[in-house]
Amino acid sequence: MASVLVVEDDQFVRSALIRHLTEASHTVRSVGTALEALREVAHIGFDVVILDLGLPDLDGAEALKMLRGITDVPVIIATARDDEAEIVRLLNDGADDYLTKPFSVEHLSARLSAVLRRSRATAAGAEPPSRVIRVAGLSIDPLRRQAELDGAILDLTRREFDLLAFLAGRPGVVVARKELLAEVWQQSYGDDQTIDVHLSWLRRKLGETAAKPRYLHTLRGVGVKLEPPR
Ligand code: CA
Question: Where in the numbering of this chain does the Response regulatory domain appear (predicted)?
């Protein structure tokens, strides 16, 4: 449960968001302009803001910058434009995650819980406890080091398991290659090929390919993410 501010001028998208979030037991407030959003965050402490990039009063990047000027609340940008360059720029400018419209309820919840988990883990200054990670048909038990796909045990190497567990622990979040190298390989440098090779082995075991991904998605020049199949 979280308190969410929805900033969206499209009445249809806005009602759908409010309905999904309320059904998931979140508390929701909504506004249709960036200036109203700024006024809201100045007065109310939200857990997360979902910010539409196509607002009538301010350009998305401008709105994000002004929000960041007054609060460090996690911001998920929502964009109709599937524009990788713009998304990367805004992620670098302080957005925590993004959704491209139209998005499914599953994507919305996955992004939301990932962002909340990260901000709460940071607030608590602790790693989340070891427990079984489930993303759609995938289930990963970090303690027993066992992974299953649709009930069948996956035969993974140590590295493949670590890679899968790391990505599945952040469903929907794009993880940069540099971060994967540091977290899974414990290296501060290395070539991308190492990651690509392990990813392709892992994909084969998950029964998917880079051209037809189900769980593992590569965003060229950005990183890799694991999310529930559409
Ligand atoms: Ca809009």
Answer: 3-116
Determine the 3-state secondary structure of 95 from DSSP: coil
Can you give the pLDDT at residue 124? 61
Q: How far apart are the first and last CA of the chain?
A: 24
3-state secondary structure of 137: coil
Backbone angles phi, psi at 145, to 5 degrees: 50, 50
Distance of CA 19 from the midpoint of ligand 1 (Å)? 18
Note whether 166 and 186 are within 8 A (CB): no
Reply yes or no on domain 133-226 having CATH 2.170.150.20: no
Dump strand ranges (E) for 80-132: 97-100
- Cα of 9 vs centre of ligand 1, distance in Å, is 5
CA 165 to chain centre: 15
CA 166 to ligand 1 center in whole angstroms: 34
Instruction: List C-alpha distances in Å: 34 to 18, 41, 135, 187, 199.
Output: 18, 11, 34, 41, 40
Q: Is 125 helix (H, G, I), strand (E, B) or coil?
A: coil
User: Which residues, at least 6 apart from 152, have a Cβ–Cβ distance to it below 8 Å?
Assistant: none
Which of 63, 54, 92 is CA-nearest to residue 174? 92
Class of the domain covering 3-125? alpha beta
Domain boundaries, given as residue ranges, for the chain: 3-125, 133-226
Distance between CA atoms of 199 and 29, rounded to whole angstroms? 40
54 Cα–ligand 1 center, Å: 4
- Structure-token match 């540099």, residue found: 178
Q: What is the pLDDT of residues 118-133, one digit of tens each?
A: 777 666 654 444 688 9
